C-alpha cells in the first residue's frame, strides 16, 4: 500500500509516531518518503540517530507546529498520506492550560484538514482516544471536537478524492507518561499511589495502535471512527503485576479522571457497526451508500443501546497476562 508513496506523520517523534515509522520501514521498504513533523529539534535529532540517512535515505525531519497552517501546507507538498498523531495528551495539563490544549488539539486539527485540502494529500487518518467518548475533561473534549472536524471534513471536500477517518483507542501500554512505566518507577519508592481502587482501563499495545492506523489507511471510505476490540485491566491488577508487595496509597481521583473509560456510548450505538476485529462508528449521513459499505465489509449493526466500556468489557487482562505483556511491550528486563 505504501511502497512508492510519501507519508507524513504529525507527532512523528512521539510513542506512536516512532512505532509507525519502524513499521512503515520494515513493511514497505520501497516507501518513497517518510516525513516526521514535530516541534522539538532535540527529539528529532535523537530520532535521526536511529534512522541515519545512509540506511534510510527516504526519511525527512520537518520542524513545525500544527498550530501553523502555512507550515503544514509547506510540509504537505507531495505527500500522499497524513497520519495526524500530534496532540497535547496529558489530562491534568490540559485542565490547567486549557488554551494551549485547544490551540493544539482543535486548531491543529483544523489546520491539518485545511492544509490537506490545499495540497494533493489523498488520505488523512487522525488519532483519537477513549477520553473523547462522553468526555468529562478538556483533553477528551478537544479530541471529540477534533474527531467531529475530521468526520465532517468529508462533507466539504467537493470533488477532491481525499478521505478523512479517525482511529480511537484506549491506553497504550508503556507509552510516554502512561501508568505502567509510572508504577515501575514508583516501585523503587516502596509504595504505589493509586487514585481509586475500582478504576479500569482499556489496554492496547503500540503495535495494536499501528495496526489500526494501517487498517484505516487501507480500508477507510471516509468518515469512520474505527475502534478496536481490546481487553481491559483493573488498575489494582497492574499494581499487583508490577509490585505485589508494595502497599497502595489511595491518593484520590484526579481532576478530569473517570473510573471507567468508554469508547462507544449507547447514543453512538445507532451508528455503530461490527467489522469483526474492529467496530466503526459511521457518520449519521455518510457520503457513500450505506448498504454498499455494509456488504463490502460484511459489517453488522450492533444492538441499539450497546455501549463499550472498560468496566463492563467481557475481555480482561489478568495479573499473569499483564506481566507477560509488560515484558513483551514495556521492559524486556522486567522482574517482579
Ligand atoms: N498514548 C496513549 O495512551 C494514547 C491513547 C489513545 C490515544 N492517543 C493519541 O495518540 C496520539 C499519539 O500519542 P503518543 O502517545 O504518541 O503521544 P506522545 O508520545 O506524547 O507524542 C506526541 C507527539 O506530538 C508532537 N507534538 C505535540 N504538540 C505538537 C504541536 N503543537 N505541533 C507539532 N507536533 C506536536 C510531539 O513532539 P514535539 O513536542 O516535539 O512537538 C510528539 O512527537 C495522540 O493524538 C493521542 O491523543 C494516545
Automatic annotation (TrEMBL):
Domain Polysaccharide biosynthesis protein CapD-like: 7-281
Organism domain of life: Bacteria
InterPro entries: NAD(P)-bd_dom_sf, Polysac_CapD-like, Polysaccharide_Synthase-Rel, PseB
Coiled coil: none
PANTHER family reported for this sequence: UDP-N-ACETYLGLUCOSAMINE 4,6-DEHYDRATASE (PTHR43318), UDP-N-ACETYLGLUCOSAMINE 4,6-DEHYDRATASE (INVERTING) (PTHR43318:SF2)
Similarity comment: Belongs to the polysaccharide synthase family.
Protein name (database record): UDP-N-acetylglucosamine 4,6-dehydratase (Inverting)
Amino acid at each position: 500500500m505504501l511502497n512508492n508513496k510519501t507519508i507524513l506523520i504529525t507527532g512523528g517523534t512521539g510513542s506512536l509516531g516512532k512505532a509507525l515509522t519502524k513499521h512503515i520501514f520494515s513493511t514497505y521498504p520501497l516507501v518513497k518518503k517518510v516525513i516526521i513533523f514535530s516541534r522539538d529539534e532535540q527529539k528529532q535529532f535523537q530520532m535521526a540517530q536511529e534512522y541515519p540517512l545512509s540506511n534510510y535515505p527516504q526519511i525527512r525531519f520537518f520542524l513545525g507546529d500544527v498550530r501553523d497552517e502555512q507550515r503544514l501546507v509547506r510540509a504537505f507538498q507531495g505527500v500522499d498520506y497524513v497520519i495526524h498523531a500530534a496532540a497535547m495528551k496529558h489530562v491534568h495539563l490540559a485542565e490547567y492550560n486549557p488554551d494551549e490544549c485547544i490551540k493544539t488539539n482543535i486548531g491543529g486539527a483544523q489546520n491539518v484538514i485545511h492544509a490537506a485540502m490545499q495540497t494533493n494529500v489523498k488520505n488523512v487518518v487522525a488519532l483519537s482516544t477513549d477520553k473523547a467518548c462522553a468526555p468529562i475533561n478538556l483533553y477528551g473534549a478537544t479530541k471529540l471536537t477534533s474527531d467531529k472536524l475530521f468526520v465532517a471534513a468529508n462533507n466539504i471536500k467537493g470533488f477532491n478524492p481525499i478521505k478523512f477517518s479517525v482511529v480511537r483507542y484506549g491506553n497504550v501500554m508503556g507509552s510516554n507518561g502512561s501508568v505502567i512505566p509510572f508504577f515501575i518507577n514508583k516501585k523503587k519508592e516502596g509504595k504505589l499511589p493509586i487514585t481509586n481502587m475500582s478504576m479500569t482501563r482499556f489496554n492496547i499495545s503500540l503495535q495494536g495502535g499501528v495496526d489500526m492506523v494501517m487498517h484505516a489507511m487501507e480500508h477507510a471510505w471516509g468518515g469512520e471512527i474505527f475502534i478496536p476490540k481490546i481487553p481491559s485491566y483493573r488498575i489494582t491488577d497492574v499494581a499487583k503485576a508490577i509490585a505485589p508487595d508494595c502497599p497502595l496509597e489511595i491518593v484520590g481521583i484526579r481532576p478530569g479522571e473517570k473510573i471507567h473509560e468508554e469508547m462507544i456510548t449507547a447514543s453512538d450505538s445507532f451508528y455503530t457497526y461490527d467489522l469483526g476485529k474492529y467496530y466503526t462508528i459511521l457518520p449519521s449521513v455518510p457520503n457513500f451508500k450505506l448498504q454498499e459499505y455494509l456488504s463490502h465489509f460484511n459489517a453488522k449493526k450492533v444492538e441499539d443501546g450497546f455501549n463499550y466500556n472498560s468496566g463492563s468489557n467481557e475481555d480482561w487482562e489478568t495479573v499473569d497476562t499483564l506481566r507477560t505483556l509488560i515484558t513483551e511491550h514495556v521492559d524486556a528486563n522486567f522482574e517482579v
